[in-house]
Write a sequence for this structure.
């Protein structure tokens, strides 16, 4: 369900009940290395991974109710009870995680930080955060229903031309 290359070139795999990676053997083949023991050590045996993203701090796995990060030796974990799929978006080296019932998180060195709670969002119909429109913008664009929004000052501006293009 989820694939990501880390900085060492390992291909990480996330699935239902499993996280691991492929590594090349000396004979040039590939071998799967399960991280199931590390998941158990983190108290997570029944994971359902939806996404994997490589970040400078390690590979981040988004599950039904946790954000996990492999830091090279163990899984770090942060519970996020979204009640609906968490949706990650990689924007350069910055990882954003959106949950309709919990808001928008930015993945930082010490874990996910809730940047905007649901009441802070421009519309209750927001379902996705996508990459920034401009390089100097701090937050991603938010998409929902028939509208796209960009953060401006202390508020949100609907991008009319882009919103018109996605209607329907």
């Amino acid at each position: 369900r989820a694939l990501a290359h880390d900085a060492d070139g390992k291909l990480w795999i996330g699935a239902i009940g499993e996280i691991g990676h492929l590594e090349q053997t000396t004979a040039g083949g590939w071998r799967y290395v399960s991280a199931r023991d590390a998941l158990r050590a983190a108290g997570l045996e029944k994971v359902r991974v939806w996404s994997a993203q490589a970040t400078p701090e390690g590979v981040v796995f988004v599950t039904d109710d946790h954000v996990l990060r492999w830091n090279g030796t163990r899984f770090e974990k942060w519970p996020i009870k979204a009640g609906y799929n968490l949706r990650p978006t990689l924007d350069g080296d910055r990882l954003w995680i959106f949950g309709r019932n919990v808001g928008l998180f930015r993945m930082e060195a010490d874990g996910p930080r809730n940047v905007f709670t649901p009441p802070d969002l421009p519309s209750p119909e927001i379902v996705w955060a996508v990459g920034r429109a401009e390089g100097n913008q701090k937050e991603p664009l938010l998409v929902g229903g028939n509208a796209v929004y960009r953060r401006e000052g202390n508020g949100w501006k609907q991008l009319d031309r882009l919103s018109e293009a996605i209607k329907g």
